[in-house]
Write a structure and sequence with these properties.
About 70% of the residues lie in helices and about 0% in strands. It is mostly helical and about 280 residues long. The protein has two domains: about 150 residues, Tetratricopeptide repeat domain (Serine Threonine Protein Phosphatase 5, Tetratricopeptide repeat, Alpha Horseshoe), CATH 1.25.40.10; about 130 residues, Tetratricopeptide repeat domain (Serine Threonine Protein Phosphatase 5, Tetratricopeptide repeat, Alpha Horseshoe), CATH 1.25.40. Helix 3 runs parallel beside helix 5, helix 13 packs antiparallel against helix 14 and helix 14 packs antiparallel against helix 15. This is Tetratricopeptide repeat protein. Keywords: Repeat, Signal, TPR repeat.
């Protein structure tokens, strides 16, 4: 089961590193009422396989009026990146059962992936109107608010989800990002720690917490978190760039340059790594 519906956007990742770089400038000069098994944000990536989609298509052939079958296949299409096919299946599921908050939340997530934020917001609102205790919908809507700069609305939705005793790590992770963005690093560290406890194999909480540690001047804990993030997934550019920040702050430009170079190899458009390499290349 994945912990986050999608990795942070490039804009979000640039913000993470930008926050840590600001500290370096002087030196550098669920618990829900619906079935979680059909919640796209919680379905394992493997469930987007052609084999699984084929199996779900066979189910639909046998029971063409079963809305959950379309919801499940839509989720699988979503995990496979087949967003238009996913939308068609969610539309069909909603036509068969217009009172499923889970299906609206799943369709909302696909709309968000496609950049259709207004449609996503409308679907999250509908999911919440059908089930005011649906934590996943609050968490999803909060992300739209957060990315559009509506931090107060995002915080309110995340706190609503947490008040509902959600076990979804995204609620704490994203609230941690809001605290981090406003400079409340101790609160951010506590939320990132909670997200890590709920999903210890996901690297994002470690990267987030590490940046707040770094902003507080706690290089050792920051370095430990960044290295853990790399150990969990060594294909994330931000983890290597974050590690490089610590090397750079310690004055080890050679190691910093190597880590920045690795980050750029993974994501040639990742500006914090590009800028960092320009500063540290010997």
């Amino acid at each position: 089961m994945t912990s986050f519906d999608t990795p942070p956007s490039r804009a979000s990742r640039n913000a993470f590193a930008g926050l840590a770089l600001a500290a370096l400038l002087p030196l550098a000069a669920c618990q829900t009422a619906t079935n979680p098994a059909t919640d796209l944000s919680r379905i394992d990536t493997a469930q987007g396989s052609a084999e699984n989609i084929g199996s779900l298509s066979a189910v639909i052939q046998r029971t063409p009026n079963e809305p959950e079958a379309y919801n499940m296949r839509g989720a699988a299409y979503g995990r496979a990146g087949r967003y238009q096919d996913a939308l068609k299946d969610f539309d069909k599921a909603i036509s068969l059962n217009p009172r499923s908050p889970n299906t609206y939340a799943n369709r909302a997530l696909i709309h968000r992936y496609m950049g259709n934020n207004q449609q996503a917001l409308a679907d999250y609102n509908q999911a919440i109107s059908l089930d005011p205790n649906y934590d996943t919908a609050y968490i999803g809507r909060a992300e739209i608010y957060r990315l559009s700069g509506r931090s107060a609305d995002a915080l309110a939705d995340l706190e609503r989800a947490i008040h509902l005793d959600t076990t979804d790590p995204r609620a704490y992770y994203r609230r941690g990002l809001l605290y981090q963005g406003s400079g409340q690093h101790q609160f951010a560290i506590e939320d990132f720690a909670k997200s890590i406890s709920l999903s210890p194999d996901a690297p994002y909480g470690y990267n987030g917490r590490g940046l707040s540690y770094l902003a507080q001047g706690d290089d050792e804990n920051a370095f430990s978190d960044f290295n853990t993030a790399i150990r969990l997934n060594d294909d994330l550019a931000e983890s290597w760039a974050n590690q490089a920040l610590v090397y750079e702050k310690r004055g080890d430009k050679e190691k910093a340059a190597k880590s920045y170079a690795r980050a750029l190899q993974l994501d040639p458009e990742y500006m914090p790594a590009r800028d960092g390499l320009a500063r540290t290349r010997l």
